[in-house]
Amino acid sequence: MTDPDSLNVLLSPYGVVSRVETAHELDSPERLSFAVAGIGSGMPGRATSSYGRIQKGGLAVVNHVFSGGRAWDSPAMARFVAIAEGAERYAGFDILGEERIWATADELGGDCLDPARYPRCSPAEYGAADCPMRPFDPAARIRWSRGLDLVTGRETWVPSVMACPGLRDAVPAEGFTFRMSTGMAVHTDPVEAVVQGVCEVVERDAAALAWLQRLPLPRIAAGDRSEAAQAAIDWCAARSVEVHLFDASTDLGVPVAYCVLADRRDRRACHAVGAGTGRTLAAAADKALFEAIGMRAELRRAKGPVPDSPADFRAMEDGARYMGAADRAPAFAFLLDQAGTGAGRPALAEAPPDALPAAPGLALRRLVSGLAAAGMRAVVVDRTPDELAGAGLTAVNVIVPDLQPLSLHPRAQFKGHPRLYEAPARMGYRVLAQEELNPWPQPFA
């Protein structure tokens, strides 16, 4: 059993986590506790920090000054999760002083993660004046960091901008990837940290595929829900909030859930979404549902006007605020209004995916073998600062470039990545052409 106080050593005004507060959201079940933690800067004399902002369009790329935690029936565990999430974000800052080299991909050849695998935008996206991304240039000198290829077991060079979400002083040639904390994970067990990192990359891939390809996901049956999920669903039903839980598991066989909350009466929080992975589909559904409930509460209490258009986005949460407004309700019809359409994915909808093994080593073996069977490569980068090591934690960043990134920038959805078109076909869905992809911004924050 995890000791909820075991991470208190990371707390101080100038520590890894500068502060943590536990509270109950008024717009959430009483049994669901929330906590918010402020993250230290990693810089002497500075109490807080944030990652940089995008150089075009004004949207914040990575702006994680705070982290959050939630737990059912345990305020102490919500606080613990918030501190752990804060430690994860802290590990993403550019503070390790790790070995890096300046080189081109052409110079490194087979010693680097294959650039042909990197996610890429479509020509139309790159051609837009407000697109923040640029194509990867194998002849441009960029920074590279060491990583471990989980499939081959060999060391390999990874672009530092992919290995370190908070990389400082990025040069223009490093602007080919959307920087988020996807793949970052911390845990007392190093193997479990890698498991969690892989699962998060898979989760974001599934969410991106579902939204961009407008996949008519199958619903999660009542028998695949936990007691906590059912209690939360009952709480929502008593307030006329519809709960829609979907099985978003992909061809990789990892349990992934996607949740949409719908409140037709609320103009600001008409729709809120969440996604999650877990050892089982029920555990994934818990995470997705609780995340959606937290997002709905956030949308309801948000101050200031909702952005008028994607061109007005300035922060990571603006997509969720924009898509949460009642005027954008038709954008969710492909998920919520499937009755009578005959749509679905016959190849995978018969049963939920098999549970991942509880043992971290066995779970990782299955994850890596699944990626390898799909022709994918996963690289793990150790990002453990001394402060986390002293608390018994390992921090990692897992990079799976073959998977579809979940980008929150509306003008950089990586619509040129092969995964976006190959995965739906393998899962038994119809495949939308590039010009038919979902035009609406991602509803996540």
UniProtKB/TrEMBL annotation:
PANTHER family given in the database record: RIBOSOMAL PROTEIN S12 METHYLTHIOTRANSFERASE ACCESSORY FACTOR YCAO
Source species: Nonomuraea angiospora
Pfam families tied to this protein: YcaO
GO cellular component: ribosome
Entries under PROSITE patterns matching the protein: YCAO
YcaO domain: residues covered: 69-445
Keyword Secreted found: no
Record protein name field: Ribosomal protein S12 methylthiotransferase accessory factor
Lyase found in the keyword field: no
Keyword set, alphabetical order: Ribonucleoprotein, Ribosomal protein
